[in-house]
Structure prediction request, 189 residues.
Amino acid sequence: MVKYPSATVTALITAPCETLFEIVSDPLRHPELAGSGEVMETRWVTPPPVGVGSCFQSKQCFGWYAYPTRSYIQVYEPPYRFIWLSGPGFKKPPFGQLWGFELTPIDERSTLVSHLMRVPLYALPAIWPFTWLADKGAMHEVKNMKPTLYNLARMANAQVIGDLIVTLDWCEQTSPCGKQVALAGMPAR
Prediction:
């Protein structure tokens, strides 16, 4: 069976869900938000209102290599989910890479934030050595995703409480897995 490698990094952040959603759903703020440092500038391609299908373009830089990406919003559910497909300009998977945030309010002042990544272009056999290679690639992305959550907390004048939770996942479809980690007795969504 072929599956799609995915990574999710989850943090408990001391800020209201709505405040965090305002930040993550504004691609113009992604250069400051992205922990990789690769997002240099972003602009909207489609006019407001923002919703599923809206498009934004980013200038990315990986080392010395600069390149543009076009991103299309796949899920827009304020203030809980914002997921986009980034890549060469296709509007739907399987081409590109899915990125996004899922937010679960814990109370009025804290939110469980899951930052997710999926590479739908790379369906792989769910057997070793493919699983080992995909996990190595996902862990590379996790190194960039962790600082993103700390940047998000800083941008919201908040803090990350406790340890970050990393989940490497293998999904059977190109859309987000939709699985969140339960934390401190809170049910998974």
Q: What stands out?
A: Residues 177-189 have pLDDT under 50 and may be disordered. The domain at 2-37+79-85+93-171 is CATH 3.30.530 (Alpha-D-Glucose-1,6-Bisphosphate; Chain A, domain 4). Residues 34 and 148 are 5 Å apart (CA to CA). Helices lie at 17-24, 30-33, 130-155.
